[in-house]
């Protein structure tokens, strides 16, 4: 008697499974013409979902005839929804009157045209600039409306590749910080050969439980062997050590007790500046014409006048500094070592000193663990030239280093230095800590002479 209920339940499950499978078996036995006729009444979301059922329905749901009808019907409904065909594509389509198109051709054409239509509709919002930062004020909204996300592909030295979705994504005023922890699957960084950052455009489909289709665009490739020797430690706490691979890219490495070889990756963090972020993430970057320098009566030889600078510091969640400086210039005496120096805050002018709105730190999280590296933050710099064009834009995690010698005797607290340097320029910020708040007492931005020549088409 004790086993009878189990037998009844088992038979009920068997019956339910047969009832569940019978409609699918019945559909598979229908002629292909009938199946295609049934599928012709489905929308894009339903076809995409059906393509995940089995091999037969994958082939049927990707049929060129179905997708050609969908594409042309949508084209008639929206006059602006057109294929941006190149000469080669026009030749290909003319041959298709005789021979069959490639597999999935019309599906890809339709999905790509949807992406282009959305991009065209949203790009007009990027023309509205923030007067404070000089950047498009709706970058965050446009990215979300276009359903842009980012993926990180990690390749190891054995040739194996793994692609990860961001663990978190945090927007600030002029930059966005992205972090990948990989669910504990990130390998030893000494075994990683390269990192690939892709921007991904998702298409708005109603497909619960499935990843929506989209297009991937390579934004950045990092050769680990090339940058390994130049890695800098920019901060640490009890659990992780932050290693700066190159400007904008940080590795969080687990700190192992009683081990000199600490190379197990906890997370990878990218900082992306807002300048042309939408275009870079969707491969819509316009070409920039070379401009001639403006005539300047004060310094006609170098023309470094009328510059505007916006500098922001954040902890990946909120801005602790957001300052705008206008009418910056560079005298001939300040040009040296291949750099043109623009000073925004002077140590001798106390009225220019700026207080930070919060504490300095870089919070991090990895699965169930989290922490805060106290001696680090994210720096974002936007330099605009006298043409109101973006001249130099930087977004990167930086170290806040304690200095033994005072840089400003008007304050009694400890003195710190934030230094960022790359091939195009240098940012030097000096701070003093008074009780629990930091005060910026000096800020200078130096731009490489070679960058000025490239930007203006000159030969200084």
TrEMBL record:
Residues 24-70 form the F-box domain. One of its GO terms (cellular component) is SCF ubiquitin ligase complex. Gene3D superfamilies: 1.20.1280.50. PANTHER family: F-BOX ONLY PROTEIN 15 (PTHR46731). This is F-box domain-containing protein. It comes from Champsocephalus esox (pike icefish).
